[in-house]
UniProtKB/TrEMBL annotation:
This is Bcr/CflA family efflux transporter. It comes from the Bacteria. It is found in: Cell inner membrane; Cell membrane. Keywords: Cell inner membrane, Cell membrane, Membrane, Transmembrane, Transmembrane helix, Transport. Belongs to the major facilitator superfamily. Bcr/CmlA family. Its main location: membrane. It is a multi-pass membrane protein. It comes from Kaistia terrae.
Amino acid sequence: MSVLSEKAAIRSAPEPSFVEFVVIIAFMMALGSMSIDNLLPAFGHIQHDFNLSSANEVQLILTVYMAGFAIMQLFYGPVSDIVGRKPTLMIGLVIFSIGSVIALFAPNFELLLVARLIQGMGAAATRILSVAIVRDRYEGREMARVMSFTMMIFIIVPVFAPAIGSLFLLFGTWHMIFVSMLVIAVAIAVWFGKRMPETLHPEYRMPFSFDRIAGGAKRCLQERATVGYSTAIGLMFGGLMAYIGSSQQIFETEVYALGTMFPLVFGMIAAVMGIASFVNIRLVRRLGMRRISHAGVCGHVLMSLIMVGCAFWFDGKPPLILFALLLAACQFLFSLTMPNFNTMAMEPLGNIAGTASSMIGFYTTILGTIVGLVIGQAFDGTVMPLSIGYLSTGILSLIVVYWTERGHLFAPHHPDPTAVIEVGH
């Protein structure tokens, strides 16, 4: 098919409205988050069913999932640049569904970990393709605005996911949670297949070539903004992964012993991240990505420092309300940085959006998973390791951002609103 005929086909394809586009992308991204958060209340049940000796061992359910998620991101981006976004997403959803089925029938913890690895390998497609599709249609501040809308909806998932997981546990076993994952994956495949046109610009479609893929990877490494902001994302994501991995032990069992109230507290803290995404939507066009995100990372360091001080003052177990407020403040500031950091990392690479999304996603996920594992496995029955972890990742992120901007923080690069790039134009 010629470039002209491909453009005509894209124009004639049914196209979702802006609202539906954002919701579809948000649900794609949410599949990965849901596959983590709604399992949290089941950690104790899984530990009991498989006779695991340590609650820290159950955290491997998250680690292997994120490992598969990271590795396959190298695959989906280049493939989507070659064959298109839609078929690549469908491949990922099929792999995710296979992992969900294996998890349903896993007779031991080792096979459950294999199933989680496969799930992560499939879910990686939703992360990579969601960013690439948004970049296909938008750039600059407008892309940051769309990503913030998407993140605001995406945050709803961790607000309700643990409660939904707890609800499944009331009426059945943890296996029901994997049934829900399978159902949602199928629903996304049907919805996306019927409503979303192919967004890859015909002139950006690449023939298969290892040299082209290597060239795209090289370009990512040559862009200072891409390397710097990707590193900052990975570091801060590591803090978030440590929190998610140890949240059940902190709130439900060992530190605050909230029991069935754990999903409520977890959801309230997650809701603050949604509010931050809304604030970013309102401000990004006026203030710019750099001013907002640089203020966010500086504030994150300050709040983390206060959290460490409180952890020391109260011997690792500060009052629940105080710790929850400080943690919520950190999450709020985290959510002011992530969509903007991601946009600035992708900004120079519009003509290789799929490959760039893969490289950035792989790097940030691997870095975040390793950092999160180190912090999470240091859990000692107090909030001290998590607090120090937040402070350390925040400081390192700020240093990296300072290097990326050559010492010029808060300086907008694009004072004028950026034009929207629509499909087929």
